[in-house]
Amino acid sequence: MSTHDDELAARTRAVLDAAAGHVFGTEPGRLAAELYDVLVRTTEDTPRARVAAALARVWVYGGHADRAAPFAEEALDRAERTGDPGLVAECLDAMLTAHWGPDELDLRLRLGARLDAVAAHVLDPEVRLRAHLWGLQVACETLHLQGIHRHLRALDALGEESARARFFAASRQWMYDVLRGRTDRAAALTASVEAASSEAGLADGWMIVALMRCYTAILTGDRTTGVDLAERMEEFGRAEGVPEVVAEAAWVWALLDRPDRVRPLLGELGGSVLASLPRDVNLLLTLQCTLAAALAVDDRELVAAAAALLAPFEDRAVVNAGAVYVHGVTDDTLSRAAAVLGDTERAERLRERALATYRRIGAPWWHDRLRDWTPPAPATPTSPPRPAASEVHLHPTASGVWLVGPAPGHPVRPLRGLDYLHRLLSSPGGTVPAIDLVSDGSGTVLQPGTGPTIDRQAAASYRRRLADIDAELAEAEQWADQGRAERLAGEREALLDELGAAAGLGGRARAHGSTRERARVAATKAIGTAIDRIGAIDADLGRHLRDSVRTGSECSYRPAVGDEVTWVLAARP
Amino acid sequence: MSTTTDPGRTDVDAAVAGLVRWLETGDAATGLFAEDCFLDLSLPHWRVQALGADGVQEFRRTEHPFPGTVRVERVDRTEHGFVMAFEERWHHEGEDWYCREQLRADVVGGSITELAVYCTGDWDAAVQARHAAQVTLLRP
Questions:
Q1: Residue B2 — pLDDT band, cuts 50, 70, 90?
Q2: Is the CB of A77 inside 8 Å of chain B's CB atoms?
Q3: Which of A155, A272, A397, A496 is most enclosed, with most CB atoms within 10 A?
Q4: In degrees rounded to 5, what are phi and psi of residue A66?
């Protein structure tokens, strides 16, 4: 073996070790690029299969499942050429990981059965553990009780061999107990999971323990513990920007009968957020929790949006990744959504099927909850008008989160469009060039090149002057000072030309219009997204902004007479 | 799901790995370049060509004999071979150099028969520093 080969082998081991430590749900950083660079240098089947499988998992764990499939397929192809059942099992695991979306259940069933057969001939307990976890996942997705029993028994047996297996065996037994309405063993199973997690050194074990405690507390009526853990779930979901955790936190608050905590979280899932979710492992979970929470607070706009997205997945169980928890069946939430939205025939059909499923699997908590549910009173044609004199917040807080909507305001994650809106609302009646909104301080749109160009300092100065001119223009127009307005408009046009004439990358002359066009598109899109988000929190406010805000090369906020709003644009001490 | 083995794909994978190794070390595995291999290299404001396995390797030895490192960003298999995006870094006469390239390669029987390379040209340390100061890349 040459030095070059030795170096490659060492690099391969290093990147595979790094990939093994990659935590589900976290960004891969440079890891994916490192794995890819090693992959293209590797020609032997075994290491290439391992690196490709690791790369597939890294993409899925990092939330880019769409990039994973080709690597998983190549890994399995290479593994099959080696004839090594352990390697084939490892790559089948990668294939299952890469095809974890709601549209790929049939493929998961086939791959899971194959993995089950291959792993039966492998002695490595880690390989058998993975096979049984996938078997359990698929059995839960299809609510195949015999399959669930068989894989739980197998996990239990593996638990005698390792702490890691004990962690999975006890946590999944708890999942099944809770689904079947049993909480008498919950405390003992949670203690066992905590001990096994500590012994095995599992990085994300604490999350499973917290989830077990949370749902056990809710089911046993321990509100204090439930509230404490709901707070932690909400904080984690917001801090990490994870939609499925935000949705689950909303649902947990709904179970705790705290609509005041549900609504702000749902506000973060409204607008285009749900529609743009990737069709990956978390799609059904996010939609199911969002819909259940929206039903709990009678948010009909969100009920309609979430139900429309969940509708293609009728008659499905919703399973948190890795069979951590079963969130009921889609027929349950869809039947209640149909009832709220007035489709009584569909509501009854789905309700009967959901109740039958819950009876078949022996899930009394879910069954009784659905059986006893009654739809809320019909909605009024329009939501109540916003009091004219009320104050409406739109500003960032000290923590970076924005406060949006009628007092006391709803917390919303930062969005570029909120910054742009804030700027427009700060000078009602005035105009702000899109290029000024978009490029302010970032240099993203106007990127100095190597040719003759204005420098950064000059560009910043021009933009400051543009902002001043806008204010002066508004004043001149207000005072009907036509001469001054024309002079200012001329100066403004000249400055925009100067900014637009800056050379492009590599010294190429930039098409004058292209920068402004990009700015126009970027500003329009960002402001539209922000208004959608605000509209999900307060439909009236969303309508007001859609009516009053104009976007284009120049943007403005001009409320109609009688439709003015008292904005609070800065956090109060 | 595809579980069949594509011998062409294996040939392409081997050619990619061999080419990367040649770019880094100057050592070409036997058969990496076909006897009638044709190289067409486009540079900023310049274009050169070489013919034959020996001609291609001689061109590299003459014009760019420095060992260095390659970072592969992307490889796409094509009907005839592959397209590869990558960057090269090397050290020469006390200075660190850099270039970015995109190449299209045709592969027959595991050997590269044609290489069309598009290169940014060599950036010395001053150009790299000026670029870093003036441009913030969206995807570094």
A1: very low
A2: yes
A3: A155
A4: -60, -25
Q: Please name the residue of chain A whose CA is at the shortest distance from the CA of residue B10.
A: A43
Q: Which residue of A has its CA nearest to B87?
A: A37
Residue of B20, B73, B74 lying closest to A41 (CB–CB): B20
Q: How far is A336 from chain B (nearest CA, A)?
A: 37
Cβ B72–A107 below 8 Å, yes or no? no
Structure tokens at A476: 């001149």
Bridge-based pairing of strands B33-43 and B46-51 is antiparallel
Mean pLDDT across chain A: 84
pLDDT digits (tens, 9 = 90+) for A490-542: 777 766 666 554 433 332 333 334 566 677 777 887 888 888 888 878 888 88
Token reading at A97:
């990981």
Chain B residues 112-131 with a CB less than 8 Å from chain A: 130
Position A496 scores a pLDDT of 67
Q: Are strands B95-108 and B111-119 parallel, antiparallel or unpaired?
A: antiparallel
With CA atoms as reference, the chain A residue closest to B4 would be: A77
DSSP state for residue A143 in the 8-state scheme: T
Beta strands in A459-565, from DSSP E residues, in sequence order? 549-550, 554-557
- ipTM value: 0.80
pLDDT tens for each residue of A431-445: 888 888 887 644 344
Nearest to A107 among B1, B27, B84 (CB): B1
Run of H or E including A111: helix A105-119
B25 → closest Cβ in A4, A73, A107: A4
Q: Do A448 and B1 touch (CB under 8 A)?
A: no
State the pTM of this model: 0.65
Residue B9 CA: distances (Å) to CA of A36, A266, B25, B43, B80:
16, 48, 24, 29, 10
| Nearest residue of B to residue A444, measured between CA atoms | B136
Cβ contacts of A11-18, under 8 Å, gap ≥ 24: A11/A38, A12/A38, A12/A42, A12/A47, A12/A50, A12/A51, A15/A51, A15/A54, A16/A50, A16/A51, A16/A54
Nearest to A284 by CA among A370, A255, A292, A108: A292
- Treating both helix axes as pointing N-terminal to C-terminal, what angle do A539-548 and A512-537 enclose, rounded to 10 degrees? 150
Q: What's the CA gap between B4 and A536, in Å, rounded?
A: 49
pLDDT of residue A515: 66
**Interior angle at CA A468, CA A467 and CA A471, nearest 5:** 90
- Residue A150 has a CB neighbour count (10 Å cut-off) of 16
Classify residue A228 as exposed, middle or buried by CB count within 10 Å of its CB (0-12, 13-18, 19+): middle
CB contacts of A40 in chain B (<8 Å) are 13, 16-17, 20, 72, 75, 84
